[in-house]
Queue: 3 jobs
Job 1
Amino acid sequence: QAQLVESGGGSVQAGGSLRLSCAVTRYYYSTYCLAWFRQAPGMEREGVAGIDRTSRTTYSDSVKGRFTISKDSGKNTLYLQMNSLEPEDTAMYYCAAGRFSWATLSPSLYKYWGQGTQVTVSS
């Protein structure tokens, strides 16, 4: 059973930065696609960024150029570096793992999820 544990959320002013981390069970880290999703109150969960086993990345248009997804094999950890944060980025952020050939950003396709970490951006 995969375990994904997020950390690094918090409150920041617009224009600031945060880095989210997600510790992933080793087997799933090395064989699955990993992705970050977010969900604001009253909104559907949306894909933010994904990375496959070969480190090819996918980004949503809303974060492209501001967010960077990466992973550290030595630590079995997934990261999301978020720069130039906007109030619209306020949401609960989740990491997820799924077995695909590329890192789709469709949340319904991912099987394993973390508990989430809150990001709040004030104007």
Job 2
Amino acid sequence: VQLQASGGGLVQPGGSLRLSCAASGEIHTINDMGWYRQAPGKQRELVASITSSSSTNYADSVKGRFTISRDNAKNTIALQMNSLKPEDTAVYYCNADVRYRTIIAGFTRRSTFWGQGTLVTVSS
């Protein structure tokens, strides 16, 4: 299973960006998916998460500015980020709790997978 994130870049304060993440591989089902971020010198933190039934959870720092969405048919999630602030600058990682098929027919395993990270820089 692979997660491919995209959409990062440089944006001015107050601007918007949209991040996308696509999961691929021997996927049986995907449970929760989410976005985390890690700023220089800080620990990785949860930004937003979404369940398979599209229930969402947000960090207090992004509530009202960021929106997470999901397309179960395409195994993708997106993070719409509005009203960006310099403190949103970080590497953003997508994450998925996946049950995947193994080489043994009929058997599956469950694990957490991470995307490669995409840099978001908010600066004037």
Job 3
Amino acid sequence: QVQPVESGGGLVQPGGSLRLSCTASGRTLRNWAIGWFRQAPGKEREGVACIDSDGNTYYEQFAKGRFTISRDNAKNTVYLETNSLKPEDTAIYYCALDQGPGSSLHPAFYAYWGQGTPVTVSS
């Protein structure tokens, strides 16, 4: 069973930053497509960023320039660096994995999902 695990969420003031992490024990993440998604209360799950096994990265428009997805192969961890956070970024953030090929910002592409980590942006 592939089980991604997210961490790093929390309460942050507007303009602040958080680094979210995604790991999956027993799986070498560099061989997988990894997607970050989020779901705010009352809204559908939406893509944020993704990275494929070749290291290509893709972002939704709202994330460009503020969020960065990266992979540390030595730590077998994928990160989502979130900067200049706004109240509308408040959501549960999920990490998803798939064997690919490629990657996608659409939730239906991914077979394995974590439980999510909450991000609250508020003063």
